[in-house]
Specification:
With 170 residues, the chain is an alpha/beta fold. It has one domain (3-168): Rossmann fold, CATH 3.40.50.300. The chain is 55% helix and 14% strand. It contains 7 helices and 5 strands; from the N terminus they run βαβααβαβααβα.
Amino acid sequence: MTRIFLVGYMGSGKSFFGKRIAEHLGIGFLDLDTVIESKYRQSISDIFAQFGETQFREIEHKALLEIAEFEDVIIATGGGTPCFFDNMQIMNSCGVTIYFRLTAEQLSLRLAKTKSTKRPLIAHKTDAELQQYIASTLAERETFYLQATHIVDADGSNVQIIKAISEIIP
């Protein structure tokens, strides 16, 4: 039985690599945001706009509880998922957790290229505001991310990252 939770800041590669590793292992892949969007039939941005972040985090927590018992699956979580309620403890008790670690500078470079309405927390920030926001929130969130059972440097080549993850998976 394999259950792997991928944690890390938005843009760290959780979904990208999660899909590839799941395919390689012949197991399922779930993106927590996609699960929520499917259930509510709205984008994460629309859910944020309609309910606000506090209620979104409650929705996210309930969705995590629903899928935390699935077997033979890799689950990419949202960037904030580990930081609310007891989500990190739930993930650690139900499976293996892997933190995709990047610096604030590396994340700023990645996210500056992809900010859009798909990422409601950064969609309307200038590059300078984005860099400040990432540095600040990463500092807060890393306390939770570092509780993961494994840490992977997510700034390497795709081959290096996949190899590092493959060595972790039981």
